[in-house]
Every structure is written in structure tokens, then in C-alpha cells.
Design goal:
single chain; alpha/beta; two-stranded parallel ribbon; 16 helices; globular
Amino acid sequence: MIPAGAIRGAAEGGVRRFLGIPYAAPPVGTLRFAPPAPPMPWTGVRDATVPGPCAPHRVKDFPGLDVAPLIGRGWQGGDDYLTLNIWRPDNGRTDLPVMIFVHGGGFVVGSKDAAVHDGSGFARSGVICVAINYRLAIEGFLPIPGVPTNLGLRDQIAALAWVRDTIAAFGGDPANITVFGESAGAMSIANLMASPLAKGLFRRAIVQSGHGGMTREIGVMQRLVRKLAKLLKIPADAEGFRSVSPETCFDALEKIAMPTARIDLRDAEGREPVFGISRFTPVHGDDVLPQRPLDALAAGAGAEVDLLIGTNAEEMNLYLVPTGVRDRIGRLLATYVVHRSQPHARKLLKAYGMGRAGVKPGQALTDALNDLVFRWPARRFAKAHRGRAHLYEFDWRSPAFGGELGAAHGMEMPFVFDTLETTTGPQGLTGEAPPQDLAARIHALWVGFATDGRLPWAEFDGETRHVYSLSAGAARFEPVMPAAPFLP
């Protein structure tokens, strides 16, 4: 029994699971562009054995790679999608540590129900695992005039507050909550560390392939509002966007996501903090994020939160290897791609070897973007944090695509959740025979950190620069990256 009513879950394999529990009212009608409202009470017993709907989005195929385990199988229709899943051990223990997962997907796709982040493994390890949905794209991250900003982040904050207030009913300890997420989910958590509205809602944070550097000014993002309104043939205001259904927007979202779309989201210094990976990001300059997250951290925001943050060694391989871009792109186009986001494109690519004998332009581009987009900003975030921070690197290389996919974006996920079976196979992210012993070790590290904060390596700082190699199981000194002078 929870405040909104009674629920019925299921038990199997030593795990109790409760799926599709509402933490907020359905975001439709007058609530579509409103802050999350409390869930509607129900009578009788609610069936919590099926996942239910997810936020409206459209998933496209990825060349030669099955990404459904990572992001789900697309939109599962229905209004009541501000929901969460809970997995707990099938025993009578209470005061269990709690982990809340925020899924990735570029703020435009994804679901709490993707197979790779099934929380059963954490439950078997003695942790309550929670996974949440939140509003995406136009509904979640478009600062439409007349609409509250950062609705997707507000949904996440509402979910965290629900867990704090309700998780004891499932045997969880509301004073021992760890939030974790990957990609856009990791960016979200980094932002929540800096948000005054999320203060006190979690004790620890794990940021996987993310950081706080991917927010935009509201004025810059309103260029996207106007572009989408033009494509949809509606006024660029709240009334205009309320007049079109989420499904109607899918084609327009695909058009503005194309590299050829004429939309400039650079700031006054000529920098695009997301490097074209997604048009949608949270914005700063409102009550959710009054400051840029890095500035807020430097001023002491989130200092009470223990932080585990890290990246994969070859993040951009996910985007540039299956598509063939890394092997085909020439010098001029590589320079143009970087110039769209970075004012010193030639100097940057030269720092990564472009023009040097034996270095292909696509490899220089890939190496530069690995550091610019993910690796160096994560280090900056750890250094700016005024509390405890530990840094890891996931460097196991997948044999997929003839061994060229490597330690790509998202690769750590099945190791963290101990769900390698979901990504194993001829088109699987981890190839045919990924190492189960490494998954067991990485999963145990996450469990230990969530339980009592323990980690087997020293904190990160700008001098010692300890970075823990997950594959080697040891910390090492890491020098400053060539990307460092090119980011503010």
C-alpha cells in the first residue's frame, strides 16, 4: 500500500518487482506543459506487473547494431507514463540502500524499460533499484514561451521526491539514496547536483558518460522553438505547441536532428556545448538551474553529495564507426564538423594529429571528440565539485565491427547492471562472448558505493589525477588532455 492506493507486483528468482507505478499525474491536457502534479489516487489494487507506457518518441534503426536493449523499442502509447519501476530483494529486509536510475537517449528517446537496465541484478545484490520515465524532447526540454522551463528535470525531481517519501514502504532507506544515470541521464544527474530544487534528495551520485557542461542559455534554445514552430506551421508559443499532438511532431523532430538542418545553437563565443549530438538539452538561467552547473559546483552546490563519475575510453566510436564516418571522412569535412561547435577547429584537430603522417582525418576527429564531448568535461566536473569525487574509465574493448567498436558510448551499461545477456550476439553491443567476471566486478563497485560510499581508489584532484581503470582494476595517473585549452 502506498499513498495513492494499493499495488500488486510479482516475485521471481529472488526479486520482487513493481512496474509502472505513477509518481506524477499523466502529463496530458492542461498538464501537458505544466510542472508534474501529484499522481491521481486509485481504488482497488493497481496491477504493477506490466511496465506501461513511456514518453512519446520515435526510435530509428542503427546500422549493424541492435540498440533496443540500450534505449528500448520505441514509444509504448498511453498517457500515464510519468511512472517508475522498483526491484527489491524477495526477503523481509528493510533499511536497504536505494539506487535511482535515469535513462539516456539524448533527451529525445529512451525508456525506463530498456532491457539493459533491468534492476534485478541490483536487487539480488541487496539494493533497491528504481528506474524512472520523464518527459522528452518538446514536452521535456523545449523552453517554449509561456511554458515552465526544464520540465524533464522537474519530472526527475518529482520522481526523486516520491522515492524519498515512499521508498520505506518497499523496505528502502530514504536517507541512503544514490542517483545514477548514463549519457543524457548522467547529464541530468550532474544538473540535479547543481540544482537548488534537488538539494537533499540524494546522498550519492554516479555520472556515467556525462557531466554538467551540456546546458544552453534559454535564448539560444528558443531558436529551436522558432525552427520547430516553422516546421510545424504553428505559432512559437504555448498555444501553438498545445495545438499539435506529440505524434504529429515526430517528423519535425527528425528533420531538425539531421546534420544538414539549418539551426545554429552556438553561444556568443561560437561554442555549441552538445557538439550536434542532440538539439535538446536542459537550459540554465531559471529556478531549476539558476547558474551553469560548473559555476554552481564551484560555488559549493552539491558539495554534500559523494560523486562517482567516469567515461568510456572511445565514446564517439558508437556514432562514427557503425556509420563509416570515421574511415571515410576527409580533412575538410572533419574540420567543418568541428567548426560548427568549436571556434578553433583547425588547431584542435592538429593537436589530435590531423596532418601528421599515418593519422587519418577520421581518427583525429574521433579522438578529439572523445575528449571534447565526454572525457575532458567529466574531469572538469570532478575537479569543480567541492565534495568527494572519484573518477573511473571504462576501457574494455568490444569485438563488434571487427574489433573497431571498442570502448564505445553505452558499453559499460550491461556491465554495471550485470545484464550482459541483453547485449550479447552477432549484432550485440558487446559481441559474442563478453567477460562475465568483469561485469561482476564493476557491478560490485556500484553496489559498494551505493551501500556505504566505499571505493578502492583515491579521490580525483587536479594534481594526483587518479583515474581508475575498470578493466585493469587499478588507478593510474592521467595527464591533461590536448582538448583542455579548447573548452571554456
